Amino acid sequence: MIAVTTTHLLILSDRAALSWVLTEQRMAFPARRSRQSRALTEGDEIMLYTTRGCFRNPTRDLGRVIALAEVSGPVRVLDEEVRLGGRRFPEGCPLQIRGLAPFREGLVLRDLVPSLTVFPDPATWSIWLRRSSLPLPAGDAELLRNALRPLLRPYAETVDQYRWGSAGR
Q1: What is the DSSP string of 67-116?
Q2: What was the pLDDT predicted at 19?
Q3: pTM
Q4: How far is Cα 46 from Cα 59, in angstroms, rounded to an integer?
């Protein structure tokens, strides 16, 4: 039997959380998002999306798809919950990041919204991003993957650009 994988857009709206996800190659989920997080299964493809507010300057930054990854283990209750920005994340899963766009680069999602079926009304597309994860129809995943791949660099060459503390971006 061949396993069918799904592609998910994982939505990150905080730079500290983004730094943690990229550094740890893990995703953590709040308890109230348990149903969404349990939709991810090992082998699923992940596209990491950073919101306009992720870097604390929504007038300058754009929402971008910045990474391509794979879920490399099951979503489960963590032995030790993750705490970021005063929030608790009791569930999570490991990721294998396959490629990462340089800092403040990546695929600007709003430019492709009219071509994506996951957003039923392009005028209100951003409402669908108020969640941790958004499953993508196969055609949308292919369109995004094809547009994203040329922008990606090897993880090891790019991840330091997203680590916070020394640069204070």
Answers
A1: EEEEE-S--EEEEEEEEETTEEEEEEEEEEEEEEPPTT-SEEGGGGGGG-
A2: 93
A3: 0.90
A4: 27
